[in-house]
Amino acid sequence: MVGKVVTDARPGEVPFQAHVELLQVFLGRRSEIVERVQELLNAQRRPEGYRQDAPLLSRQFEDCFFAVAALASEQSHLRGQLKAAHWVSGFKPNVMPGMHNDLIDPGEMMVRGFHFWQQTRWPGRNGRARYAHTLFNAYVIRCLELLSMRLWDEGADQASSRLPQIQHLLGQLWKDSPPDQPVFVRDARWLFPLAQSPTTEQLSAYFDIAEHIATSLASEDRIEIDKASVQMAGGHLRSQLRHYILKNGVSMAENGLVLKARSSNALDIALSIQSLVPLLEAYDLAIHSGNQRQRLELAGAICQGISADPELFVNRVDLVGAYSMIEHLFITTDGEGRSAYTPMGCRHVQLLGEYAELISHLAKALREDCPHFRPIPGTYSPYGVIYGFSSNLTEHMALKTLLPDPAPAFSVEDVFTAGNADKLAWVSGWRKLPHIDPQVQRQFDYPQRFAEQIFDRIETALRRHVAEHDANAVVQTGRLIILTGDDSQQDPKVSQIPELPIQYIGSSDPQIVAEHKAHPDDEAALLHDRREGTFLVSYQTSGGWVAITKDLLTDVLGTGRDVKIVGLPRAAAAVLRLMCV
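^ that's the sequence the OP posted. Answer follows.
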């Protein structure tokens, strides 16, 4: 029986049970829907503009679902609700020209399929039907990703009972799917990071979801979601490193690469900390309980989570706090210039303290377990996987069904565990399609040497931490002296400390730039970077904005040098003190 559709939900909420029942109708009418989709794919004689219009194709594709005879009139009104709620919650994807920044989208996948067939040959009915099943599965996966973000609608107390419903729908999807179809994801708990993979303007929603997961789901479910989250985040950040290395022809140790990776990834670093804390706690428990299998699974996830910058996560925990702080989310200032942490900021600062204690305590055990994850030539290591956003992984799997080859028995979860030559061939073959230039294919070949370098950095960081801990060595960190505009500088010791060079201070205020107190910075770019958490502090002046970059953390304080910042407004100085946790 179709449940009553709730119409008095708060903004950003949807009737969860009604969407579960809607997806059950779709799954029960797979054959009817797939037949409509394969007819839509018969577009060889349609205009080129039509075949490239992803939004139009998405609407027509969705029409195939909502035109089924078994659909109740109330259910038709559910169309688009999951997407709208996701966007209202803060997950509206940024528009990125030339790049698909969204969850897997059947319209976009149709455009790519049409392009493939145009460059090779158009398929007959069987070929279209196979891709239609793939698109059907992709659409349901997209719906389940969006539905996973709605566990907490109508009350957080229902979240634990709703997660099994999503798992049931996921199991039903693969049970009824033809055997030649790829299984995108098996575990519903891996839908959470997939649903959050596109980049967005608003960052607070990610922390809201992290807190929901931490406070309302069962321990086993929380740990699996945290494992998925840190592994996908680690893979994304490693892929960024690989891209910059190839693009700029630099080594992994290049200082500019280190600075860019640290200052531009505040969100990923912060969210990784929020997931690493419960994983480290579970790892500690597995060690004490003697559960070797769970110990190694957790160690593998933790190592992947810190893999993009193990030196920062293991040996420069004194800096990771400031790098992970996002000024406009974690700190608030009242009308009188008094600053304090927001509830979100308080939670993050607490987790930073817990992380520092846990990584110090468990680095030796991680060092002992680390050799289990060493990349071996001829086999697959997750340290070598290359992708942009996590949703790209499902797109790669979907596009391979354009070829007549059998679908490998791997899913997204398998991307993040080591494997034999079969898994290596699977990952290496994602971009091996006949219409893709061989040079592009070679660019994305599995990078064995890169995987080995990533592993070496993890092992080196852990080894160094253990050695320095055993020797009671003290990491030298410089002091940041903060002086407001009306502070006295009578202390001779302070007067001898050099001022922060203007290379770390940007401004859109012409007067401040003219006085050589900052280098010029475009205001739109500065405000964008502020939202991304790139700065230690930023503040508005009468003529624009001023921002101090986080690069000084590594370049100056990280090398043990003291520096002072002079002339800050009192409110900005108060914020900066809170940022430097």
